[in-house]
Design goal:
The chain is an all-alpha fold. It has one domain. Helix content is 77%, strand content 0%. α2 packs parallel to α5. It is elongated and about 50 Å long.
Length: 158
């Protein structure tokens, strides 16, 4: 089943969809970074290595998210259901917004929900949280691949 999924990923439709997902996620991760700290300011405060690391991680996370969503689409075509692992891509973006996005907005949002907490300055412009997001994406890809190979189809037969 995995080989069939890999074959499906190489079709023109899936490649175009993957590129669109990649561009969308790159934009989201770039926007999150800029809400936190501009790349110019990041280079001045921490050095250009952090800008390169952030952009590299953004590309890896965007590629991973695109692959996960494409795998989920292939699974829906092959088995008639979508992978639960594809939701981890959304969780990763949400996690990014809530942890190293616009701090004042996050505080106001949680305060409106009645959740009080103190904000601690994150080291290296929130870089450690990108690794957590990357881990969520990796888990999502692994989960989706496992569901393609081992998941049971809930489609009733005639």
């Amino acid at each position: 089943m995995i080989q069939l999924a890999y074959t499906q990923l190489k079709t023109k439709k899936m490649l175009i969809q993957g590129v669109l997902f990649l561009i969308t996620f790159m934009f989201l991760y770039w926007m999150i970074d800029n809400l936190n700290l501009s790349y110019v300011q990041m280079a001045q405060d921490y050095g250009s290595w952090l800008v390169i690391a952030n952009l590299g991680l953004n590309l890896v996370m965007a590629f991973g998210s695109a692959v996960m969503l494409n795998l989920s689409t292939v699974m829906a075509q092959l088995k008639g259901k979508e992978s639960l692992g594809s939701n981890l891509s959304f969780v990763s973006v949400l996690f990014g917004i809530l942890t190293y996005g616009c701090t004042s907005w996050v505080i106001a949002f949680f305060a409106s929900l009645g959740i009080a907490f103190s904000v601690v300055a994150l080291p290296y412009a929130g870089l450690p949280y990108k690794f957590i997001s990357l881990g969520l994406i990796a888990i999502g890809i692994a989960w989706t691949l496992w569901e393609i190979q081992n998941g049971k189809c809930k489609i009733k037969k005639g």
